[in-house]
Amino acid sequence: MAGAEGSAGRQSELEPVVSLVDVLEEDEELENEACAVLGGSDSEKCSYSQGSVKRQALYACSTCTPEGKEPAGICLACSYECHGSHKLFELYTKRNFRCDCGNSKFKNLECKLFPDKAKINSGNKYNDNFFGLYCICKRPYPDPEDEIPDEMIQCVVCEDWFHGRHLGATPPESGDFQEMVCPACMKRCSFLWAYAAQLAVTKVSAEDDGLVLNVDGIGDQEVLKPENGDQDSTLKEDVPEHGKDGVKEVKAEQTSEPCTSSGSESGLQTGLKNQHLNTESQSGCKLQELNAKQFIKKDTAAYWPLNWRSKLCTCKDCMKMYGELDVLFLTDEYDTVLAYENKGKVDQAADRRDPLMDTLNSMDRVQQVELICEYNDLKTELKDYLKRFADEGTVVKREDIQQFFEEFQSKKRRRVDGMQYYCS
């Protein structure tokens, strides 16, 4: 028995101990996160009348639009009113989306909040998230078959969610970066690599190893920077110590366009030559200045700090490029999830009312004093009552709490019955 008791004791020491305070703090944190996401959206009115909402909490209904059907998204209010008993996928937030609830994608459902909708919202964008699939692995979250603990991070461009281990670069601590752009979006918006060398949380500058970047289409080559600092570098093919993860790139061209590249050696030569001309480039374009410097382009995600968007160039040529790439939203600080969450918190704080203060404000001075005294009595007696259980090491049961309030009400009645009022 002694051995068994010792074994049980050691086992209890190994088991993590979670206190009630820990549980309450975790619940409060989850509640705050939920409030931040939902606080910026209307829980009672369908958002359809607002058009393509800049950013809102969205859901997809697996019951009404299962995989194989057309994808559709519904607003917060419709998720409550029209799909309350259905299986929903929480999509967090999406930008520039108009509620689909009850339109032609829903064959047997009419929206209860806004039935007069167009058949389709042509401006909406959809991805696999609307069927509960995420990341490049196209798996559900949480994934019952995935035993690897891994957080999911949302790409600010495509708004898909990715496992940290599938982003090609280890994510920094969650508090160290504000937004992430996934590898596919970094490849499509390759101009961002020039900014990443200066702004990204995990720097991708070539200055650390003295190498400049490899041009698209040339393969595993690198350009060595001469020790004398001359920009007319020479090509060295297939350097084994760098490989694919160390793909380097030199800006291919330096023209009036804000961001260009070439897949030929002539393009590389032009880029090297035009590095001399950075002082003669169009004034006022931040991107052209960055393109004249050395930076690394990798097949990985990039992690960005707070307010990095404000550093992007907004000259005429760059704005045209953003429009062609459909990323004009990157120049809008209010597009960020953080801005949306902060707005939700502010709105909730303005709407949140303390019922005790409301009651006090509706009373006269005598009633206010009586209520405060009753509250203090309740707090003191409840504290003393619970202390007995703590001292004895016993569990507080439901009937114990019920007994306390019955006794408290009885004492209150006795006090009130014996009270005398005097008028002066």
UniProtKB/TrEMBL annotation:
- Domain annotation UBR-type: ranges: 44-116
Q: What class of enzyme is it?
A: transferase
The record's listing under Gene3D superfamilies reads: Zinc/RING finger domain, C3HC4 (zinc finger)
Q: Which UniProt keywords apply?
A: Isopeptide bond, Metal-binding, Phosphoprotein, Transferase, Ubl conjugation, Ubl conjugation pathway, Zinc, Zinc-finger
User: Could you say which EC number(s) this protein's record lists?
Assistant: 2.3.2.27
Q: Name one GO molecular function term.
A: zinc ion binding
Tell me the protein's name.
Putative E3 ubiquitin-protein ligase UBR7
Q: Which organism is it from?
A: Crocuta crocuta (Spotted hyena)
